[in-house]
Here is the input.
Amino acid sequence: MSVRKLLVGALMAGAATCGLAQGASAGQYDGVTINILTRPGPVIAGMVAQRGKEFETATGAKIVVNEVPFAEIFPKLQNDWSTGTNSIDVGVFAAGWGVELASAGLLENLDPYMAKDTKIDAADLAPYFREFGMKIGGHTMLIQLDGDFQMVYYRKDILDKMKLEPPKTWDDYLALAKAMNGQDLNGDGKPDYGSCIFKKRNAQSYFAIQTVAAAFVQTQGTAQGFHFDGKTMKPVINNEAWKKAFEIYKETGKYGPPEELNMDIGDTRALFKAGRCGMLIEWGDPPVLALEKDATAVKNQLFAVGALGSKQVLDRATGKLVPVTKESAPYAVDGINYAPFSAFGGWAGAINAKIDPKKKQAAYDFLSYMNQPAQSNVDVTIGWDGFNPYRLSQLKDTALWEKAGFTKDAAANYIGAINGALNNPNMASDFKLPGAQQYSGVVLDTELARYLAGEITVDEALKNIETGWEKITEDFGRDKQIAAQALALGPAK
Amino acid sequence: MAITTETISQPGALPAGAMQRESWGEWSDRHSRTFFIAPAVTLILVFAIFPTFYSIVFALSRVKFSPNGLVFRFVWFDNFKTQFNGNEQAHFLGRLNSISIFGYVFSAILIAAVLWWYFRALMKSSVVGNIGRLISAAAALGLGLLFAATLLSGNQWGTLLNTLFYVFAGCSIQFVIGTALAFLCSQPIWGKSFFRVIFFIPLMITPLGIGYAWKMILDVTKGPFKPFWEFIGLGGWAWSSDAWAARWFVILGDSWQWIPFIFIVMLAALENVSKDQVEAAQVDGASSVQIFKDITWPQVVPVAATVILIRMIEAFKIVDLPNIMLGGGPGIATESMTLHSVFLWRANNMGDSAAVAYLLLILTVVVCSSFFNYVVLNQLRKAHA
Amino acid sequence: MSQANFKFEKSDRSLMERLFEPPAPGKMSFTGNLVAYALLLFWSAFVLFPIYWVIITSFKDAKIVNEGPYYIPFYDFQPTLDGWRALTIDPDCGPYAFVHQIGVNLYNAFAYLVSPLVTIDRMQPAICKVLLAYQNSLIISIFATALCMIVGSMAAYALARVAYAPKFGNIVMFVILALGSILTSTYAGVHWALATVAALALFFLLARSLGRFFKSTLGNNDILFWIISQRILPPIVVVIPIYMMFQAVGLVDSHLALILVYAVANLPIVVWLMYDFFRSLPIELEESAQLDGATRFGIFWDIVLPLTRPGFAATTLLTLILNWNEYLFAVFLSTAKAQTMPIMIQAKNAGERGTLWWEMSAIIVVMIIPVILMAIFLQRFIAKGVLLGAVKG
Here is the structure.
């Protein structure tokens, strides 16, 4: 008996001392645990956990990062907060999804916190993100951690070698992809692909299609939107412009990998880092990812175009495509209409309105810590963490990027493309109203996937999307949606 | 004295205070009939029966989130209508625009067969039996006609038929292979216990792990069969973009996991076949085939029917494999009804999610009851005859 | 003589007969043996290959995986520990953290035990994702199996020995009242607790009064069928309502919720298997014990259970494995604290850094090793024909 009891006793004593030794750091948030829910790491979640450790050393608050599959972030958050379970204190998700949660009163209003915050440097935040991303209904409800635009990338070295011009329109994209397809783009002797796009269902495909469609559909500025008619909330989807976008999107598949329909962003990133893609539709990560040690084939070779445009645009009255003119597309440049798409809106953090005040303050301090230039300017230059630039100081000059490993040309091209998109008056916004996830991630995504797989024709797909969107609008209440859409984009013209 | 005789002559009257003297243990023993079964019944009532009823409410409503929890809007059978002829029809039933000649021919044969089967037993069965037959006949007709309108007419089918495909195709293949393996293992061979242990393992591995393992193994460009794919000329083939290949590969993964189940049950059954009969027949000069057909199989059929039923019940619930291997397949090609319901829940569309779940329940009950009544019971009756 | 039909003598047999007919009753022919071994070995390879592949993939890294399939470690490729290191990439997962975690758990358990007497502050465990998920899986599986086996065996024993006769009318009444309580609490805004209590009270009242008029009864077989047929219920049908029920009492994302739900999910199997074991026991032992004055529970615990030990063990293992693998309920009912291993693996599957097969393989190996071990144990019971009786019925 004695040996066993001695062992158990020793173990417990040891455990006690171990545990006691851990709780030695004294900070203002000792004993506070913040539970964060976000997508699986290391993207986003990895850096949040890392900064969380630093925050804990400084203040004693414990940051726990919980990961769920991407498609479950929103339903889980909504369930957890609206049913009062409150397992989660902070959600890090797409800025556009916050509207639905805010309208249910689930998000903490961060205006008073920001007013007291001296370190956050709000003036440095790019106006688009500060006003449209972080604010809902005029109040700040989200803290931006990342700025998202989808852009088109091309392999500069290949284009130079083949003496081709960078693309300006989507027809150019197809032509370039066709030219590069089948060539050996990374010197390993095997033929590679002209275009790599993540077309998997329930992944990120529904963002890419909007990047293509925006230039055809939106012409009158950000406030017009390219999903709904602002006055009636009728879907602007069943028309020639979206049809052309769908057809172009499908055609890129001819110059891409055979299993493109089953590739999500992880798979395409692996491909382009190995140098096997000629062109990409992607967020701001590729050039930064290209600096990693397993991407030597493409280091500093991925150049960006803020957006590709179209020479034909949608006439909303007839639903047909018409050529670009001063009336049909007032923001067109050189006869081409551009509409950079701020896909996803950027990862942002929101705080549960129903947790206790000390936790809220701790949560806000942590989000602010991540958002402050001292941390943020470093994080956006690291590829694997998934944070893209959203502060003016990050987009001002190339020094920050050159320090990370960019060449001067590549850095200039990169921030030039992002700045061009940010300052474009015809920039297209992602869904920012109740049901955002359902409109895009469910209805649009499903029908697009079925069209790509050849199960339905493009006309059927567009018709199904129209019916599906109308049903969601009815579910939430048409008038409420019209008001929410107006808030999101600015008053309808 | 008088008191004693009084108490004896009135056996019914207990001395005062008798009830309190019964101990806690004795009281619980007297009520042990209830206590033994009450926990199980309570758990099932609370966590299975009650939620099933509650689920009806979800299926008959549109559900919204509000600051005070959930808000239900009663819409009768709207959610079900959406699945059958609303905008989800193509997702649930399949495309029904054009019916080919094969479809018509098959439909005609099917209608004739079902009607003949139904009326044949109409007079001989009870009222309950006839109602049951009516439901089974209606289900068979509905599903058969749907099959004719979709697959046989070259149209894509929806999650309803997908699920049935997984159940029927999967169970048949698994039964045949499982029984064959069991038969081989029941023969006098060396190493029986080794094979038994090996063959049993896949049944117990987490389906999620199996899905991912097969996804890796079947990868054409990086998986272990790459030389094989290249050898037969499919070097760049993306099976995940081909609806039928995707479905068959899901069945492959599913079979890898479930054949062991059929295997152990059939093995036990085969080993219980009396050896004397078999040896006597061998001595009499019967061939192996004859022995199997006339002696072994009839003794094994009741178990076989039961095991197929059990396998079918589990097969209706398939969700992990199509989700992990293909995320629902190219488009919706490999989506089962459970996966369809999960996707709807993820979209916060709880009404439709509950409706699809209920349709799955009805389908499972009808198909399994029909199978049980018309196949299993038949076999059991024959065996006991 | 029938023997004349069977040619035993080697010299009497033609080549065809030597190849295709058995040499003696009870043995197989040469080709029969050949075919049997070939098929069995092929199937063994088919079964073992995926497991083998997952194990060796966990020892590969990006370059080895992307450059095409390599089959044999040390020969084809050099194994690395990249995948295994990724399990511990979370700074909270170092070896010290592992010991610390055990220490904290013991400390917290100690604090819980002495809590009636003295309040000791609990310690926050360090959070290592993989460890937490593994721990949750273990706790939930073990407790759910224990609950399921106890409740299920008792019910099975009762069904095997006691003749029940619930009135059909009572059951119909119960269904009507249950539906009524649900409808009023969702559409008429009545608070769910009030509706439930009212319905229960009404049921007991009516059962006492009207129950006398109901004549037709159901028997043990019906109850057994009802319990076993719960297995037909697809979990997806009940998962959302169960979520709402747990949310109403604040138990979402707790271990207790998952334990209860898992116990119910596997109850039909336990009842079905244990019922067969109990039925096959001779009743004399129990009758004599009853005459000696033993309580029913005493008989159950001291006499019956020990007699069915192999069956009990087999069923326990089977239930344990099923609980370990359970996925759908965990998806809906756990958010952060009660995440089990399958959920954590699925979350990692959606990574954005390409096909990290080696990392996924390492985690899958960690997850399936326990079940493989349990399966090997379980198989030994099955080999003894322990579970056959259930299926024959």
About this structure: The interface with chain A takes residues 62, 64-67, 69-70, 87, 90-91, 95, 156, 220, 236-238, 240-241, 243, 326-328, 330-333, 343, 345-349 of chain B (CB under 8 Å).
